[in-house]
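Take a record:
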Amino acid sequence: MRLRVLAAMSGGVDSAVAAARIAEAGHDVTGVHLALSANPQSYRTGARGCCTIEDSRDARRAADVIGIPFYIWDMAERFHRDVVEDFVSEYAAGRTPNPCLRCNEKIKFEAVLDRALALGFDAVATGHHARIADGVLSRSPDEGKDQSYVLGVLTREQLKHAIFPLGDSTKAQVREEAARRGLMVADKPDSHDICFIADGDTRGFLADRLGAEQGPIVDESGAVVGRHEGAYGFTVGQRKGLHIDRPAPDGRPRYVLSIEPVSNTVTVGPRSALEVTGIVATRPVWNGPADVPHEPLTCTVQLRAHGEVYGCRAQLSGDEVHIALDTPATGVAAGQAAVLYLGDTVIGSATIATAA
């Protein structure tokens, strides 16, 4: 069946090859680049770029080579509200957000998909490294590039209208194919870090928006061991950049254990104190083939992008997902996603609220 497909083209090699594959398969494809900043020069460029003027030009050139229509959609206001402002408010509340996950949820598969369907398109195609079959999301065979985690927040309805043409390919294969197709982005480096923080200084970015506010760094006993300029500049599990005045009695490194935004207090302690075996997560999304687990379900969970996978038992209780880990995890931060899997298949996700 010939589909009308909107191909989201970031200007990178993955989305270019994804669009080319869909067009070659005989579908009616239109390329679109998302302009996400009212001032694109303030966003990252070059090897660390994402959604800049440079990227829009690369996307247009790729569309010309493929031979498909190409447009630029201005999503700057929506992106600022749903991703940038959310990022700032989450840090202000003592949580650690994932802006790429939020961009997939709110921009690429909500705002863009809604507009695409309204315009008569059947589906949206992206260059994500993940597999999808009959609306079910699974991991990519390229473990190092797998992006099923940041797609785990999508609903079944959104996945039903999503196409990931790179699902069975490794990154190396994608680059080789891009070169064969004559796409100039074949050797373009992947984007890294946070696209809307031009210099990569997250703490400085937050300080500009939230202001400096000195507070104590305390150990587990409550003794003050240092000072900071804003609790929002820290995340659970952080070791570097703590500026602690006195070493731990045993001489071992200290890590951030918790962040309390109301009192503006950061608590530090040994790595062993970071270990958790129980997680409570909110805002669940059930998008896989399995039934909602009202009884404990044996599965696995991933707690951050490209992070370790843990065996667990997950159960829905009211509006919360309770996750009991088989082995302790460290550095589990509120605000991150807990994505549940059966084998390589995503069955659902939720936002981490507490861990102990």
Q: What stands out?
A: Residues 44-49 have pLDDT under 50 and may be disordered. The domain at 275-355 is CATH 2.40.30.10 (Elongation Factor Tu (Ef-tu); domain 3). The chain has eight helices and 17 strands.
